[in-house]
Amino acid sequence: MKRNLLSLLVLLSVSTTLPAQEIYSEIRQHAQAKVNDPTAEVLVRKFSMFKLEALNYLAIKMKEEFPDSTAELLDKEALSLNIFIANYTKSLVESRNMPANHQKKIIRAYIDASCSNPLFNDSDTELVLSYFKDVNSLTRFSLDTDWRRAVLAAKAALKEIDKK
Fold it and tell me: Tell me: the pLDDT tens digits for 22-62?
């Protein structure tokens, strides 16, 4: 499992070198490929499914809420989502030998970072919080997230956890 998560991190970092206007599409295509790959590890498929749904939500809501926005904004949010998930995965792997209480704090830091940084303030909480409400999901995040702010919030929360 560790090997699979580390290979996932490597694959996620590849997309950071793509030029603007291709980042969203590349991340989405990669997530779609993992979701459709029956040989992929179950955890990789679950993380990819969340990413795919978050990217689809992001594109739809941007067209509705910010019709004049540039592809660059969509790319920045997609890249930040990718970074957020990669950092989260890395944190899970690094904390696997720590006490359960510490692991819960790390997971809570990412959940809080996602839920407390909305991008659209979408009132459709049933959709937006569908992953959050699923107690069996490893990606209990809000779909309505400003991923750039969430990355920063998660980093700050993890620094606070490390201080204690």
Answer: 899 999 999 999 999 999 999 999 999 999 999 999 999 99
**Using the 8-state DSSP alphabet, how is residue 92 labeled?**
H
- CA distances 71 to 64, 67, 75, 117, 121, Å, are 14, 11, 6, 21, 21
Tokens representing residue 45 in the block? 């498929």
- Cβ neighbours for 160, distance < 8 A, ≥ 6 positions apart: none
In residues, how long is the chain?
A: 164
Q: For the chain, percent helix, then strand, then coil, each to nearest 5?
A: 70, 0, 30
The model's pLDDT over 116-155, given as tens digits with 9 standing for 90+, comes to 999 999 999 999 999 999 999 999 999 999 999 999 999 9
